[in-house]
Amino acid sequence: MSQIPDSLRYTKEHEWVAQTSSDSVVRVGITDFAQSALGDIVYVQLPKVGDAVTAQKVCGEVESTKSVSEIFSPVTGAISAINSDLVANPEIINSDPYTAGWLFEITVSAQASDLLSAAEYATLTA
Q1: Closest by CA position to 60, among listed 33, 79, 77
Q2: What is the pTM assigned to this prediction?
Q3: Which domains does the chain have, with CATH numbers?
Q4: Could you read off the pLDDT of 9-62 as tens digits, one per residue?
Q5: Helix residue spans in 7-117 (DSSP H)
Q6: What strands lie across the sheet with 76-82, from one edge to the other?
Q7: Which of 3, 8, 50, 121 could form a disulfide with 32, with the two C-beta atoms 3.0–4.6 Å apart?
Q8: 68 pairs with which residues across the strands?
Q9: Measured between alpha carbons, how far is 68 from 121 in angstroms, rounded to an integer?
Q10: Torsion angles phi and psi, residue 114, rounded to 5
């Protein structure tokens, strides 16, 4: 069974969202369920710092030995940081999707109203 931390919010597209120490910045990654379904991740295409992103729109992709999956932004805003460790070591997402395997941070300009709680996400992946 996939790990689904209670402290995070989730999208129907299998991204997670964590509040950072700044009220206006969130950290984003893909869920344990998503990384497990993808298999061995071999490449990640991340947005660039400063890029504008829109909730529910594609902003990157994750490539595995099985397939390529799009990354959707869970909120609207601007990319404020990326996890540069993933460029050389994208497999970090497989081993630690919720901590070291985060993808990027967004300075939020509009909160998403459709983020799911851990319980709601669990029913989606059951």
Answers
A1: 79
A2: 0.95
A3: 9-110 (2.40.50.100)
A4: 999 999 999 999 999 999 999 999 999 999 999 999 999 999 999 999 999 999
A5: 32-38, 85-88, 92-95
A6: 9-10, 15-19, 25-30, 104-110, 76-82, 52-53
A7: 3
A8: 63
A9: 22
A10: -110, 20
